[in-house]
Amino acid sequence: MSRHQFDEMYAAPGQVREHYLQYARWLAEQPDDVMRARREEAEMIFRRVGITFAVYGAKDEDGAGTERLIPFDLIPRVIPAEEWRSMEKGLEQRVTALNRFLHDIYHDQEIVKAGIVPREQIEGNAQFRPEMVGVDLPGGIYSHISGIDIVRAPVPGGQGEAEYYVLEDNLRVPSGVSYMLEDRKMMMRLFPELFAQNRVAPVAHYPDLLLETLRSVCPDHPVDPTVVVLTPGMYNSAYFEHAFLAQQMGVELVEGQDLFVKDDFVYMRTTRGPKRVDVIYRRVDDDFLDPLAFRPDSTLGCAGLLDVYRKGNVTLSNAIGTGVADDKSIYPYVPQMIEFYLGEKPILKNVPTYMGRKPDDLKYILANLKDLVVKEVHGAGGYGMLVGPAATAAEIEEFRQAVLANPEGYIAQPTLSLSSCPTYVERGIAPRHIDLRPFVLSGRKGVQIVPGGLTRVALKEGSLVVNSSQGGGTKDTWVLED
């Protein structure tokens, strides 16, 4: 992959891309002290509202866990309407195929019989749940809320062009949508004039679409289904988001201890007595959902939940066992899934991927560690990976031994030169690498996507790691309407 950089705002130094022209003119007129004051105001408001991210493993001076404010950048990432339409089609296609794949692997396994995905890649996968085999779900939908990570990188040999690639699929409990909504609210508060000058597609209706999606997949009986958000509790890194979404949808935020099972139904305890629950938007991993079925030491779930679920008396969003489809060892097969289930060519490309389980790929990985990004297939959040060009000789050697010891546990990809976007940093405005996580909702009425998503930005100069757990920040994402 070409290492030159694609800048979202500038086609060349001083040459602003057409869809950024209006914004660039406005930005040029803003005094530096005004922008600095706005930045401080944003930080103060975010801190007051409690928009934080708990960082696992990080401790303050007293040994307590640390909560970090996710840095918010004042300069939006702008996407023209035409570009978004194509991306939206690609996202719908991809998530539809992934849902078909999940239904298939827990039912007839046609894709295995066709020799496209090896059986051991599914049944040997840590996220495969044998308990889900033969279980029919409303609408056949497993991932109701998907977060698809998209990057833009230069086309090899292209004349300054760049293409969008899917970097990974997040189908278990994708997070970050609250930052998308709060970033937009903040921009509208700080710079209302920008929204008068630019036709920016709205995102504020996401909670309504989410609730509509969740209600659409309830078990068949209720007229007015009861939806709840299940959180592991206030010590979870994304607790702010759990509380925020429950409040925005107007539904109860519950913990495992608030739920109980009786006569094949799930109920929540309320001050007026037990109330039946039809749909659980769970932000708790599979392992912790039901101590009778999975981890007996879990206090985060509800005993007997799996039984009620298998009988079709409650819907879990996302479904148990969805993690197979967002495992990095399954990712390379998604383009073939799209062709197999939908009979279409993929609209969004995968990043070229080498699989440690294939002998030729393994040879290539070991010979080129210094140039590749190597990832653990079950890793998440930017952990368990090697960024070859940024690693020391010792780190590369350590990873070589890890890959040799467990080849099927790793995949490798070229080091993409992620596109950059002007970002407001300490010394002024400078380019920083970004990615994009659109949120895709799948319900019985089809697939719905709010325009844009969460743009994450690597705030360290030259860094390609955008994860909030690794010090990344966020930007508002503008999709311009025609």
Automatic annotation (TrEMBL):
InterPro entries for the chain: ATP-dep_Glu-Cys_Ligase-2 (IPR051680), CP_ATPgrasp_2 (IPR025841), UCP005522 (IPR016450)
TM helices/strands, residue ranges: none
Origin superkingdom: Bacteria
Region forming the signal peptide: none
Domain Circularly permuted ATP-grasp type: 76-458
Pfam families registered for this protein in UniProt: CP_ATPgrasp_2 (PF14403)
PANTHER family linked to this entry: BLR5612 PROTEIN, SLL1039 PROTEIN
Protein name: Circularly permuted ATP-grasp type 2 domain-containing protein
Species per Swiss-Prot/TrEMBL record: Malikia granosa
